[in-house]
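Technical annex, item 7. During the second reporting period the consortium partners agreed on a shared format for inverse folding records so that results from different sites could be compared directly. Each record opens with the tokenized structure and is followed by the designed sequence. A conforming record, contributed by the partner at site C, is shown below for reference.
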């Protein structure tokens, strides 16, 4: 178990040194210089998450409406850079989790 923790800490350092994480931190810090815009982005993300998590099976109309409601914010370069950087980091994390859990079998997944 100690070896797993040690390797996890190494992986954490590697993530922190990745270009994806660096871009995310840079974009987040730049966005935070505009408190109102940062709040608007966080509001958008919360609503997007709610649609994805609690919405209909086909939330197309809700997603389109959300994009319309936040169109101006989505076209702001600071907000756009942050959202893209966050998506890139999330994509990296999903790929890592998939590799970490590949070939592992859990009973609750067989349902």
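Designed sequence (site C submission):
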């Amino acid at each position: 178990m100690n070896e797993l923790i040690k390797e996890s800490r190494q992986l954490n350092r590697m993530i922190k040194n990745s270009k994806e994480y660096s871009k995310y931190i840079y974009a987040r810090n730049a966005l935070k210089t505009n408190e109102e815009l940062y709040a608007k982005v966080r509001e958008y993300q919360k609503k997007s998450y709610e649609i994805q998590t609690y919405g209909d099976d086909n939330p197309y109309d809700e997603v389109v409406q959300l994009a319309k409601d936040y169109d101006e914010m989505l076209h702001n370069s600071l907000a756009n850079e942050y959202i893209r950087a966050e998506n890139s980091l999330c994509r990296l994390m999903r790929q890592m989790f998939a590799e970490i859990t590949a070939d592992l079998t859990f009973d609750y997944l067989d349902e």
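The helical segments are 2-16, 19-32, 35-54, 60-69, 71-74, 77-101. DSSP finds six helices and no strands in the chain. All partners now use this format for quarterly exchanges.
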